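Summary for the steering committee. The consortium agreed at its last meeting that each partner would contribute one worked example illustrating the joint modelling workflow. Our contribution is presented below. We chose a case with several input lines so that the handling of multiple components could be demonstrated. No manual editing was applied between input and output; the record is shown as generated.
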Amino acid sequence: MNVYGNRITRLIEEFTKLPGIGGKSAQRLAFYIINQPLAKAEALSDAILDAKRNVVHCSVCCSLTDSDPCVICSNESRNRHVIMVVEDPRDLAAYERTNNFKGLYHVLHGALSPMNGVGPNDLKLKELLGRIDKDGAQELIIATNPNVEGEATAMYIRNLIKPLGVKVTRIAHGVPVGGDLEYVDEVTLSRALEGRRDM
Amino acid sequence: MNVYGNRITRLIEEFTKLPGIGGKSAQRLAFYIINQPLAKAEALSDAILDAKRNVVHCSVCCSLTDSDPCVICSNESRNRHVIMVVEDPRDLAAYERTNNFKGLYHVLHGALSPMNGVGPNDLKLKELLGRIDKDGAQELIIATNPNVEGEATAMYIRNLIKPLGVKVTRIAHGVPVGGDLEYVDEVTLSRALEGRRDM
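What follows is the complete predicted structure of the assembly.
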């Protein structure tokens, strides 16, 4: 049934294709856009095309960027000898928000997942090896996600890089700050115990 | 902080302006689009502009449409003497999905809400009066939302239209089908009792 006419229906369908947008949300977005001034619809439409056409992978860290190398890799004040390996540009952004890491990043664009057909060649590992050779990296901090795929990827990278004589570290597992011990799972509690530090 | 570069940040900001899309969702949408083939981004971008540029209010029922009059108003098999008044095109679509109403619609584009500065002149009431004169309407079914604004609007329209000798009805209030009496609020239960019918 097509009570709205083809154009509105097509817009609703396009929104429905986006992740996390169901039928009702897509309808709401479509009507919102139709009720906005033309300039606002043009701004959104243009931002979509502009980003899609001009965003590339940084040739150094493989993160997404519109200037190559990206703002982080081209920042001379960052420590070029420490590289943090993350799965996704959003993880990079999360660590940047901490304002607590001044090294460089390397974005894998995924994690090893044989079940989903993601093997080592699907990740940016060749690029990582190339950097380590070229940049004289001293420490590789592995900050993949703390789940099965992330841990397997961390182990794989460790075995790959350690023989090159580079220090390889993994971000700590433990109880999240602000959390409530009662609600923390057993594995995390055990890891927090193992990783205890003098105080 | 702008770790993604201007283009991605701009796209994220444009998405954040949409209703119901927060920062995290906007980021997810932006990365999704960047990882899609160009053709898909173009399809979305084009659907936005196309809908915004070509969708108009139907000159008869004031619903949104890309062909004027809309598919419902130009359908000769519909009963032109019964008009259902709704607040929004989505309410029209909801009733169309029932497949149970064969008259025409009139879309007000809102409901009276003095608190939010919405008065009678902000609704499509002049257009409604014009249609009743011209089309020989026999019954006006008021299907505004069952909340304070919707009820006030229903009452306002009733007082406006009834003196013209047109039958004015309101959709029934009662317990929703499939609901559980225990969870239905007192006002609805009272209305369901008042509106009881012989069986």
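Residues 38-54 of chain B form the longest helix (17 residues). Residues 9 and 195 of chain B are 55 Å apart (CA to CA).
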